[in-house]
Amino acid sequence: MLMEGIFAAVPTPFYPDEKVYYRKLEANLARYSRSLLSGVLLLGSTGEAPLLDDQESIEVLRVAAESTAPEKVLIAGVGRESVKATVALAEAAARFHYDVVLVRPPSYYAGQLSSAAVLHYFRSVADHSPLPVLLYNIPKCVPYAIPVEMVAELAQHPNILGIKDSTGDIERIDSLVKATLTAPRRTVVVTPVFEAVTSRMLKPQQESGSSFVSAVDLAEGSGITTAAIAPPIKTRTKDIGFQVLCGSGSAILASLQKGASGGILAFGAFAPQASYEIYQAWKDHDLMLAEEKQVRIASANQRIVGSMGIAGVKYSCDLNGFYGGRTRSPLIGLTSQEKTEVEGLLAETRN
Description:
Elements (H helix, E strand, L loop, with lengths): L4 E5 L12 H12 L5 E4 L11 H14 L5 E5 L5 H13 L4 E4 L11 H14 L4 E5 L10 H7 L5 E6 L4 H10 L6 E5 L8 H4 L3 E2 L7 H6 L7 E2 L6 E5 L2 E4 L5 H7 L3 E4 L1 H4 L1 H12 L3 H22 L1 H10 L16 H10 L6
Parallel strand pairs: 1-2, 1-12, 2-3, 3-4, 4-5, 5-6, 6-11, 11-12
Antiparallel strand pairs: 7-10, 8-9
Helix pairs in contact: 1-2, 3-4, 5-6, 11-12, 12-13, 13-14
């Protein structure tokens, strides 16, 4: 799967009683589908994945798959504490035609996570996952930073296609890119303009006719309808290597310059256009404009995403026309002073 461009790390909406608000999730994804994002991540850190039970997680994946445009790459966060549970959620994602699974290291037994144990975990998941695996390095949430040398070793696995690194460390991004240059190349299906082709785009598409047949039509023999099968999409192939994606909105431009293929950003959840503009300017080789766009969001990203966390992201969604709503306990919302600060930070970054 081609992982290029900007992907939004999608929050999980909740009712005031903390039940998952699936209708608002549908509405948010419909809006992301109309954006220039390459795809979306469900059940990542921004999606409060550790606070959802298995049944809720599976339902979020189902609703999201049904609500997102077929051309958007779907990434499912499936990290669990055991290989068995992680693979089970990956299998659920495959049933809903996701394209990639994002897998974090286990964390509860951090003191016993030797290099051998972590390698075993990722290799075992990759061996059994029906979907390609994207490694997830986020040491501020999981007390284990995946060493660059381990990433280079895991990059040799045929079912591990890349890594999302959320450290914001540009030198680490540079090291990851260089360390994985010798990873096996793979051939992926893309569109004629070299954009990703998702599994849902390749599914047979049908437009069913009217299900209502009147008595008059039956009498006249005109009540039989046939389903029109959509013509197959045109595709080509592209060779890609191990793909490194940045998880920090403040570091996206510098990461792209170091060889990253894109970014999976919480900032993209409430400001997808502003996030995409950095990537587009860089892709157009307009470095001055790209730097201007990066500076525009850097301080807001550091304060809202980096410091305020999920509550900051969700309030920013509310400001920018998405549904953010409340966080799930034990996370708490912003103070009135913090809300005013967010409003000021996003005054020039509205969708």
